[in-house]
Design a protein that fits this description.
heterodimer; A: mainly alpha; 14 helices; 76% helix; B: 252 residues; alpha/beta; six-stranded mixed sheet; 23% strand; binds adenosine-5'-diphosphate; binds magnesium ion
């Protein structure tokens, strides 16, 4: 596998591995938690590097993922005390862990090849640098296989617990009543998220990893009304964003992870803008027909929300079928 | 507590006290539901009606007291108990259709890992039919009106095929059509021997529909058959600290 193809493949696999759990994170309104975990894994990574010596070591990934889980548990503990509300507990825990990580990075231990820049945005080319060779044939970047394992882990978990993830995300109360262990599943899932973030860290850094997780799901959420479709669209959008980002970065000789996040952002903006325009156009059309007060169901749910619940109440109105 | 002679209560709470942090909402409530009735829980706003249901179902940890269903703890008989919350606090933008939401009612019986199959799908369609939502099955859940949402959550409880249903203000803010559909389903359920417990205010519906009533205001004021217990005197006591004259005008 040539170096360029290797980088592209790594970009693609990283984007997919991040985007899949992102669907549930978005629906659970856990985007802020991703942000926190992505910072909190840093001390785990540095300590893991000192011990294990290499960024693709499974020990390092597990150790860092556990640090990431610490922020989830710590924040939930603080929230349980009732002394802090909303995102404040998260905001209290993760900067502490992140700053420990940064101090460790800045110490420049002899075998820690990380700098503050990589910490923030990662370095895909660096991650793709060491190739796996078997009998003199390059099988692509070694790190590609780490990300591939994480991707498979995510696919496996979501496939196995699809029904459980769906019900605990949509209606945790019902899930609990029906006997599902909501908290246990939550921690298992957050551990997986933590593993994913840690693994993606090398390629995308802490800030862009968050974008890779949240933006494809947010875009897919705009255009779908079924969870299975949302997952499918998330995969498509993540793949398009990753490959387009890679292409742009290659052409401009820019950072791949940044270009990927930028492309995903552009796709989101395009879909969002298109839906806004469509909703506006529908309202206009109706006004021209002298039915300005007729209900509109805008395709984007957020638009529907903004236009008001009155729409939903009158959803039997045939005009609303235009949305589908 | 009065229950019909010779009948085991399907739900029995003894000395149940519930608090939110340090505010005690329910104080030593004794509560019992005889089998096969439609029971109304009546009380002023903030009386702790919703809190009582949640505590019975183990959604709120009680400070003290015990709850049993069919003579067993909740976790042993959870499949036999359905619940339709007051304001389903779900994300109405969630990418799921009405049909999918109803199907979720079957997840409990399936347990971990097993996927819904033909039987579960058939049950969901039947529940949609019974609640008059078949034509809306493919809608995103947020695109329903208040009454239709209420019916969807009732349908979800129906597919569970429970023996005891708790409904928290199922008729609040719903349109006439939905109200009729919901009442019809409730009568139907009683007919087939199920028990229903409903938080409800409207005195005329209580008299027409319910056999049993519990008057609640932070504690049980009275509980028993509607014709005896739902008296002017008891209702007045329940609403004691409220301006009741107007409200009671409707009851008498
Ligand atoms: N989550 C909560 N946290 C704190 N207090 C609550 C909470 N939910 C309800 N309460 C309080 O408990 C009391 C009973 O509430 P509730 O059971 O909802 O009353 P009802 O359903 O009879 O109108 C009210 O005073 C309410 O303010
Ligand atoms: Mg209530």
């Amino acid at each position: 596998m040539s170096f360029v193809v290797g980088v592209a493949a790594l970009a693609l696999v990283t984007a997919l591995a991040c985007a899949l759990p992102g669907v549930f994170l978005l629906l659970r309104r856990d985007a802020m938690t991703v942000e926190a975990v992505s910072h909190a894994v840093l001390p785990g990574i540095v300590v893991g590097l000192i011990v294990a010596g290499s960024l693709d070591s499974p020990i390092l990934i597990l150790a860092a993922a556990l640090t990431g889980l610490l922020v989830v548990l710590g924040a939930e503990y603080l929230q349980g005390t009732g002394l802090l509300e909303g995102d404040a507990p998260l905001g209290l825990v993760f900067p502490a862990l992140f700053s420990i990580g940064i101090i460790l990075v800045s110490q420049r231990f002899s075998n820690v090849h990380l700098d503050e820049h990589v910490v923030l945005v990662g370095d895909l080319n660096l991650a793709a640098f060491i190739h796996l060779e078997v009998a003199g044939v390059s099988l692509g970047p070694r790190y590609l296989y780490v990300m591939l394992a994480v991707l498979l882990l995510n696919v496996g978990f979501i496939a196995r617990f699809y029904k459980e993830l769906k019900i605990t995300t949509f209606d945790p109360t019902l899930a609990e009543l029906l006997g599902f262990r909501v908290r246990r599943l939550h921690y298992a899932f957050m551990f997986l998220v933590s593993v994913t973030i840690t693994a993606a860290f090398y390629a995308a850094g802490s800030i862009l990893t968050v974008a890779l997780m949240i933006v494809p799901a947010a875009t897919a959420h705009l255009v779908t009304k079924r969870l299975s479709h949302m997952l499918a669209w998330t995969v498509v959008i993540a793949a398009v964003g990753a490959l387009a980002g890679f292409g742009v970065a290659y052409a401009l000789d820019a950072a791949t992870s940044g270009a990927m996040a930028l492309m995903l952002g552009l796709v989101f903006s395009a879909v969002f803008g298109f839906q806004r325009a469509q909703a506006l156009w529908q309202t206009r059309g109706r006004r021209r027909e002298g039915r300005a007060d007729a209900p509109v169901i805008a395709p984007a749910h957020d638009v529907a929300r903004e236009v008001g619940t009155a729409n939903a109440v009158n959803a039997t109105e045939p005009a609303s079928h235009a949305a589908r | 507590m009065i229950t019909p002679i010779g009948c085991e209560a399907v739900c029995e709470a003894r000395c149940l006290s519930v608090s939110y942090r340090d505010a005690l909402v329910l104080h030593e409530v004794d509560f019992s539901v005889p089998p096969g009735v439609i029971m109304a829980i009546v009380g002023p706003n903030g009386a702790g009606k919703s809190t009582l249901l949640k505590a019975l179902l183990g959604l709120l940890p009680p400070v003290a007291g015990q709850v049993e269903f069919f003579g067993r703890p909740f976790r042993e008989v959870r499949q036999r108990i359905g619940y339709v919350p007051q304001h389903a606090s779900v994300d109405w933008d969630f990418p799921t259709t009405v049909y999918d939401v109803v199907l979720m009612g079957t997840y409990g019986a399936l347990g971990w890992f097993r996927r819904p199959g033909r039987e579960q799908r058939a049950a969901s369609w039947e529940a949609l039919e019974r609640t008059g939502l078949t034509h809306l099955a493919d809608r995103q859940i947020g695109e329903l009106s208040g009454g239709e949402r209420q019916r969807a959550f009732l349908a979800r409880a129906l597919v569970q095929d429970a023996d005891l249903y708790f409904l928290d203000e199922p008729l609040q803010g719903v349109d006439a059509l939905s109200k009729h559909a919901i009442l019809a389903v409730m009568r139907d359920l009683r007919q087939s021997g199920k028990t229903l417990v409903m938080v409800h205010h409207d005195p005329s519906t209580v008299r027409q529909l319910c056999d049993w009533v519990a008057l609640l205001n932070r504690g049980i004021v009275a509980s028993g058959p509607v014709e005896h217990t739902f008296s002017e005197e008891n209702v007045r006591r329940t609403y004691a600290h409220m301006p009741t004259a107007e409200w009671f005008g409707q009851v008498a």
